[in-house]
Amino acid sequence: MRRGKRYLKCLELYDRNKLYSVEEAVQILKKLHAECGPKFDQTVELAMRLGVDPKYADQMVRGSVVLPHGLGKEIKVLVLAEGEAQKIAKEAGADYVGGEDLINKILKEEWIDYDVVIAVPEIMPKVARLGKLLGPRGLMPNPKTGTVTNNVKQAIEEAKKGRVEFKVDKTGNVHMPIGKISFDENKLVENAYTAIDAVVKAKPPGAKGKYVKSITLSATMSPGVKVDTALTLRKLQEVAA
Prior knowledge:
Elements: H1 5-11, H2 22-36, E1 43-50, E2 62-66, E3 77-80, H3 84-91, E4 96-98, H4 100-109, E5 116-119, H5 124-127, H6 131-134, H7 152-161, E6 163-167, E7 173-180, H8 185-201, E8 212-219, E9 225-227, H9 229-240
Parallel strand pairs: 3-4, 3-5
Antiparallel strand pairs: 1-7, 1-8, 2-6, 8-9
Helix pairs in contact: 2-8
C-alpha cells in the first residue's frame, strides 16, 4: 500500500513500535497534527483489539459511554415516540420528533440525516421495520446502549453531551471517536480513559484469557500510536480503588 508524503513524514516523528501511555500518545498525535497533519480538525479515534469471538452470543461486546468532554460536534437526535413522550422529547431539545410518520419517511426516503435515534419501548415493534436501514449504520435503537428507554429526557441529554455507542466487529475490534484534535490534551486524555474503561466494564461472561489485547490512538489521517495496555489498565484500577 502506497503512503503519501505527509503520512511518511509523520512516521519519522515517533517510534511506531514503542508502547506509550495514554498521555504520551495524545501528545504525539498533537505533534503529528501540527507538523504533518491536514488543515481540518481531525477526529481522534480509539481502537481496541479484544480477546473475544463475537460470533458467540456470550462474547458480544456492546454498550455506550458518555464522554466527559463530548465529541466536539453538534449531535442531531431523532426521537421515535408517541403521545406525551413526544412533548417531553421536544422540550428536551431533540432535533426531530415523531412516530409512524417519521418511520415511514425513513423507509421511503432512506432518510438518515441524524446521529442518534432514541425510541420508547412501546413503539419498537414499528421501529423494527427500520432494522435493515439503520442497523448497518449503527443507528438502530437498542436497550443495551440506552437508546430504547422511557427516560427520553435523560437519553437526549446524554446524546447531546457526547454519548458514544460501541460494538465489537467481526474481527474482535472496537472503534470509537473520542473527540477532536483541537481539544486540550487533558480533555482528550480524560475522554480516552473514560472510553477504555467503558469497554473494559463491558467484558462479556464468555470472554476467556486476555480480554484487552491492544489499544491504539489515532487521528483521521495519521498513523496509529500504540498504547501500553498493561499500564493503562493498571491506572484505571488505581482510580477505581
